[in-house]
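Hi, here's the filled form for the chain we discussed.

Project: internal
Contact: R.S.
Residues: 399
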Amino acid sequence: MGDEIKTKDPSQFDFEEYLKQYYQILFPHKEMFEWLSYGNKDYFVNREFSFTLSDNIWTRYRSYNDMEGFMKDIVDSNPKKIDIGPIYSSAPKSKQNNKKFVPLEKELVFDIDMTDYDDVRTCCSGAKVCTKCWLFMTIALKVVHRALVDDFAFNNILWVFSGRRGIHCWVGDSRARKLTQEARGAIADYLSVIMKDGEKTRKMGSKLSHPSLQRAFDQILLPHFKQLVKEQGLFVGKEQQEKILSMIADSNCKSEVRNCWAKRDPSKEWELMWDDLEKVVSNLSKKLYTNPIYDIVFTLAYPRLDIHVSKGLNHLLKSPFCIHPSTGFVCIPIDPEKCEDFDPTKVPDLYTIITEINEKKKGSLKPHIQYFKSKFLEPLLSREKQLKTKDNGSSLLEF
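And the returned structure, exactly as it came back:
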């Protein structure tokens, strides 16, 4: 097992008092307002927020006329969790007065949870996460981010640590926010190869069916796969070996690989075992209907998306910069360009950041808010301004 996620247990200090100080002093109210407004007040007025209060009381359809109201309600309510919903046809807080209260827009979002890899990872399970199994999240982020940029030409993408065992993605481009539920579902399906239970949604065949899958395999999955095999001990033990062998459809290929592996010490010769597999597949390639290498790598390493989160226009998702109530970690952004350096065991936590204030030490949260502003918020607002200028110019020409 790698380094585990450990923070000061929220039950060992006055969590609610520390949380209140966080909302009063550190939570980026202004930046969050600017993001969720997109330069348009109506966006924010009609945006739904949900709070989980003390005693796990869940409240929905909160909305605000301005940043001051947003900030005041957060500080006064001191929510354990904040979820963000869609932009509705009218203000959510007044929904009972509007018979046609419907969701109109929302960021395209993705939710990837480590528990969906429990049939693969060997170091942890359930809510536990360590630096070894975090590699699954790194791979998932790289694959999805690359597809969003290269295949869909999205620009404003925010990746966020969920605070415990996963990652969230927010696509803020105007085109993404205006997607219909059907279009969101199509994108989620496009990015899905492996279901949450490990079942494949597509057959790999002897060749990969789409250039995006070939790109993911060549540039991300395969380069990381040996590290995954080593850190998860995927070839160690008969049960693990048989799990891998079960992904080989051809009985002759499976038998040859099993015979080669019987001569190896999996704790020391796992790289040679992988070489054995590649060699056998290469020798039998003309006789094989499917390529076992593709099946194995995609089944074990490809992102496992919760597609229902992405498809649903009215689905709620935890806000960036929330405090996870169980770990105390801040849900900080993750830089996709440096995602391999992200360490889930070294994320700023509530106890630490409030202690830093009280002891007048340099704040460990500040760089993460600065990243949010400079790498996500400012480019996003700049593009929104350009779009408005372009639209205004088009309207003048039409007139």
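Let me know if anything looks off before we file it.
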